[in-house]
Amino acid sequence: MNPKARTHLYVIFFSVLLSIYLDYIGLKWGFYITKPLTTLFIIAFPLRFPNKELKRYTNTITIGLLFCLIGDVFLLKEAYFVFGLLAFLIGHLFFTYAFVNQQGFKWPLLSGIVLIFIALVVIGLCYSNLDSLLFPVLLYICVLVCMSWQGIALQQGGFNFRFTGWAVSFFLFSDGLIAINKFYSPVAFSGILILGTYWLAITLLAFSASKSK
Known about the structure:
mainly alpha
């Protein structure tokens, strides 16, 4: 791996640990700075080390990551939850487009069944507490499942895509845990699990859009 790329990944890793620690100890002002900053470091990776052979894919993934950044900022305040949800939904649409544009829409049956089952379990647990957020959350889950489905299908598409299945799986886990923690029952160490798997997910997506080996 390019030494500069390796150093960049170390910076991301340190920023992730720092942000999770600041959230865990409740130092809000520090977390409010380091959370979007960590995502910015991740976005910068494919910008610094773009894969010119996958230019459209790289550009589309990067735009999706920018919407994740917008979502990160909105989700810092509970009052802006719906706006954060919308930002991430748009990000997932860009990720889906990137995956489908790369190899067409795929229909892997087993992964589709598993993803739908997971979605139904999360909806079943959270349904009674969704109230006015029922439609936005259902729409978001549908888009998330579709994105995850195509990300898993793309995993066999070549060297750069070998971790896309893991990336979307971590995203699904992180978002599912957010829903369960918020609308069903608090989960121990949810902040650590949600943030850790979320940043791992988008780092793997950023890595898939880079030229770094």
